[in-house]
Fold this sequence. Notes:
Blueprint: E1 5-8, E2 25-26, E3 29-30, E4 36-40, E5 43-52, E6 56-65, E7 84-94, E8 97-107, E9 116-126, E10 134-145, E11 152-167, E12 175-176, E13 182-185, E14 188-197, E15 201-209, E16 225-229, E17 234-236, E18 241-244, E19 248-254, E20 264-269, E21 272-275
Antiparallel strand pairs: 1-18, 2-3, 4-5, 5-6, 6-9, 7-10, 8-9, 10-11, 12-14, 13-14, 14-15, 15-19, 16-17, 16-20, 18-19, 20-21
Amino acid sequence: MPPPLVCRDSRRTAPRALLGSRGFVRDGETAPLARASAAAGGLTVSADAVLGDDTHYVVVYSLTPDDPTLFEDVARSDEGTVLLDFSNIAIPENEGASGGGMGAYFYDADPDDASVQYVQQCWAQSEGGLAGTSAYVKFVDLYALDPETLKPVGEPLATGTWELEVPLDYESEAIALPVGQTVDFEGASVTVTELSVSPLGVLVSYDLAGTPDASQEFPQLNLPVFVNFADGTSFDAIWAGGFGDDAHVTKGASFDRIVDADDIVSVTVGDVTIEVPHA
């Protein structure tokens, strides 16, 4: 049996998403609120909202200080993010999940209150989907960042460890697409076995017959996948995180923002384009 592919982590820092002051505001609705919090070092971290599909989810946390002036002098980026970071962040562990990755950023939903928000955009593969499971998260020591170097400045704003169990209480927003398409990928024959999109990202699984003729490490992961939007733009998921072996691969990528599902027109896998149905 060939050795398994090493999981490629899709972790990255994402730009600001479309978020309301206490959760996700999409089509006038607010996502269900998670009930999890931890306090240390004069700072309370609480999970406010979750949104997800079978493999991607987003958690919004509020960081509320005992000292209401704690974040007043923290710099903001041109994109509107708050320049904070934890000294250590454990990628969320999900019940029964394999593989995974994370992007994260801070923003200020309401400048008139003392709290700031922290957003984690995550993906993980779990049989039966992630909805109804829990994510275990851990944060250590919160620092302000230098706006030029984006490195921690001085002593921590808050010292401590915050550990939370976040219930992923949401209904999956994944849209399952037709499968069974066969495409040529650098000399290998690829058959799509699973394909879905949601407001958060894209997931594809496929069987391979033969080895792609490519120079990259683990070329089986690099099947071209693009999500096409109504405004004519596309999201490139070629370098999405994934796992598998020489015969089967699953990979998924989170969008750099939360999108309206109605704006997703199609997904292109290799040279085949699959339209996204809308009611």
